[in-house]
Amino acid sequence: MALILLLFSQTTTRALKMDLASLIGMLGALGMIAGTMISSAGSLGPFIDVPSTLIVIGGTFFAVMWTAPLPVFLSHFGAMAKCFLPPVKKMDDMIVRMVELAAIARKDGMMALEGQECTDKFFEGGLQLLVDGADEPKLVKQLNAEIVAMKARHEQIHGVFSAWIDIAPAMGMIGTLIGLVVMLGNMSDPKAIGPAMAVALLTTLYGAFFANVFFGPIRTKLEGYTTYELNYRALVVEGLRQIARSESPRNIQDVLASSLPVKQRESLAAA
User: Fold this and answer.
1) What is the pLDDT of residue 134?
2) pTM of the prediction?
3) Is the pLDDT of residue 16 over 60?
4) Model confidence at 8, in pLDDT bands (50, 70, 90)?
5) What percent of the chain has pLDDT over 70?
């Protein structure tokens, strides 16, 4: 019983943290397409064909695997789940903590920053560099190197999703051509031409569906998250640079807050 309650609690927590825009958007798109199919044909049956599914999903799967190293290919499955989870790093929370640490450093020196809590690992690593005596050029160089490496990893994952988007419609077209070849090879029954053509076109439908309804939005969402992470880390680097220069906490807050939306900037100033 306790295990069931624990699992339910974890599931509820994850559901509350989900990005509702992603969830509602995906379900809404699926609902609109399925509704159109049912209203047009009376059921989903005419739009289901196992061979067409195999060539689009299976063929695209293995073709995409060919485009990337295996570790990158495998890691992109985990990235799919992240498009349903909003960024947990909040810029305003980071700025508040940066200002607090700047006040500590200005009052008690850099060594007083050792062991201080930070909002994330990147922030913590940069702060440790300051504690270890790194000057501003070394601090910026090392943190920027981490940012470049992170961006390269993310772009590799985005490249896998781009491959899905490019290859799925092509596989759909290949399936349609296969269906047309089979249909044209059996023209003895004119009544069978229409159904055979319909089945042949299903692979094109499947390819367009997976590319534009599923993998396209996922890639766009992840690219947005990458941009957010890059902006977040750039603010962390700028804040730590200001601390290294012994700038006043107020000036640091003003510099970092200039990157926030107006409402967040006003609430931060009022805090």
Assistant:
1) 87
2) 0.84
3) no
4) very low
5) 93
pLDDT digits (tens, 9 = 90+) for 100-131: 999 999 888 888 888 888 989 999 999 999 99
Give residue for tokens 């680097």.
237
Contact call for residues 139 and 126 (beta carbons, < 8 A): yes
Q: pLDDT at position 17, please?
A: 62
Pull the structure tokens for residue 22. Answer: 């992603």
Amino acid 104: pLDDT: 92
Nearest to 241 by CA among 228, 256, 227: 256
- What per-residue confidence (pLDDT) applies to 263? 80
- CA nearest neighbour of 101 among 232, 247, 234: 247
d(CA 68, CA 163): 9
Indicate the pLDDT class of residue 154, thresholds 50, 70 and 90: very high
> Rounded to 5 degrees, what are φ and ψ at 214?
-115, -65
Domain borders along the chain are: 1-40, 49-270
Tell me which residue has tokens 């699992």: 7
Q: Is 233 exposed, middle or buried (0-12, 13-18, 19+ CB in 10 A)?
A: buried
| Angle separating helix axes 216-244 and 121-131, nearest 10 degrees | 20
Residue 263 neighbours by CB under 8 Å, 6+ apart: none
